Amino acid sequence: MRQKITVVGAGYVGEHVAMGIAIRELGDVVLIDILEGTPQGKALDLFESSPVLGFDARLTGSTHRYEDTAGSDLVVITAGMARKPGMSRDDLLQKNAGIVGSVAAEIARHSPKAIVVVVSNPLDVMCWVTLKKTGFPRERVIGMAGVLDSARFRSFIAMELGVSVESTHAFVLGGHGDSMVPLPRYSTVAGIPITELLSKDRIDALVQRTAGGGAEIVGLLKTGSAYYAPAASVVEMVESIVHDKKKILPCSVYLQGEYGLKGMFIGVPVVLGSAGLEKVIEIKLTGDEAAALKRSADDVLENQAKLAL
């Protein structure tokens, strides 16, 4: 029996997540949104591609009917609004906390055993909102951030050195935003640390570009934000969970003392398997790296404190 996977939010990220899940045959997909007809139309269009692309997965759409998502094994939350002109970051935080909070409550009601992957921004705080509203154990609420940030870092390393992206590996920890913590010491090309291949100035430039990766794309598009890479990152996480691959991926998880931090979601390397978060991997950090991770965690806590949950 195929897994049932719900994708909340039928925007660009949501539809590409749904397509990636279907093409890899990770499960049947329910695409849900508040807009009448949008999830149904996109799900039907995606399903009609299955004879051509050769995948067996059902895709259906629903307008705000969480009954249709009942019994989901896994739920991906992409719902939320983008920051609009004149809207402060605090306004966006409050708005999306309300949206994600209501979604999380419906998930808990209709799919109490689901694993939840959160994509909505501000990512780390929205994970915390989801944890609070569902009451799920931390193992079943995981944020997609580090996979995307690390993919961007890997892409920039490959571009800089003129090598295959398949030869690159990178780790980006911390919150999903300006305070993220790329780790050049743990970033390699065919096992060779990039610290031996690039000058400090070039590494610093790549680190800076990684931190501003999302903003760079927004600046180029003018009227939108990234969705291909975020969706691909979600699909990698879903695949590791559904197939119990136990991949070690940098994800936003709720810390309970690991890295000397607790009480917030932050990006760290974890083992992802059929139970969701199966283990937090604690790697050795230098004093500067640990301090940067602490600053990133403090930023997340500061935003959490603005919400009354």
Q: Can you walk through the features of this model?
A:
It is a single chain. The chain is an alpha/beta fold. It has 2 domains: 4-143, Rossmann fold (3-Layer(aba) Sandwich); 146-304, L-2-Hydroxyisocaproate Dehydrogenase, Chain A, domain 2. It is 42% helix and 21% strand. It contains 10 helices and 14 strands. The protein has helices at residues 12-23, 38-47, 50-53, 89-110, 123-134, 146-161, 200-211, 213-221, 228-242, 287-304; strands at 4-8, 28-33, 59-63, 74-77, 115-118, 141-143, 168-169, 172-173, 181-182, 188-189, 192-193, 247-256, 262-273, 276-280. The strands form 4 sheets. The protein has a 6-stranded parallel sheet, sandwiched between helices. It has a 3-stranded antiparallel sheet with strand order 7-10-11, covered by helices on one side. α5 links the parallel β5 and β6. The protein is globular and about 55 Å long. The protein starts with a strand and ends in a 5-residue tail after the last helix. The mean pLDDT is 94.
